[in-house]
Structure prediction request, 211 residues.
Amino acid sequence: MKNIIEALKWRYATKKFDIDKKIDGETFEGLLDALRLSPSSYGLQPWKFIIVKNKEMREKIREAAYGQSQTTDASHLLVFANKKNIDDNLIDEYINFVAKEKNIDISNLDGFSKMMKGSFKGRTMEDLRGWASCQLYLAAGNLLTVCAISGIDACPMEGFDKAKLDELLGLSSLDLESKMIIVLGYRSVDDMDAAGKKIRFAKEDVFIEIN
Ligand SMILES: Cc1cc2nc3c(=O)[nH]c(=O)nc-3n(C[C@H](O)[C@H](O)[C@H](O)COP(=O)(O)O)c2cc1C
Prediction:
């Protein structure tokens, strides 16, 4: 546990990356596996992660991110996107997939399907998209923690023009909307933020104990 706490203190939202230091292929694949293993409500995984490797596209993303240099300088860039249509079709596709994976008759999942559809019923698309977004942020937290314990630097970013990024990546036609960018790599030795004090509320201000 001590090592994990140390790793979480070591990590920070990296502002300046070492342009020359790249994450090796095997490590990056491991990070993607960790991301894919993230939990989500009902296991529905209403997300896609776009791995942007193209240099010119990374330049364009930098513009959409108000010039934040992490977007071009970090080793890897992932766009976290949600499915836009959170509806019964999404549930049906998932149920089909579960039946196939578990090698069971789909009728065994009728109750599960009805329960999920019931929980979506009567909710606005805006509300459901908010729900989908929560799942995406959980995956983001998972990735950030795995990065920390693996000695990989990262910066989660919401500071970008979402409509512009969606247009650049053609996300609308894929029924997707971007919510966050996470860049990964290694901190530059002269990133002043690395030495900054961790600003976190005190234990007594964040935990409420019910005895
Ligand atoms: C959802 C989210 C969006 C963020 N967006 C940005 C961003 O656009 N640019 C940036 O430099 N940092 C961004 N941050 C980093 C936060 O400012 C940072 O995590 C917070 O101040 C706590 O500091 P620490 O992560 O360094 O411990 C974001 C963090 C989160 C969780």
Notes: Residues 125-150 form the longest helix (26 residues). The mean pLDDT is 97.
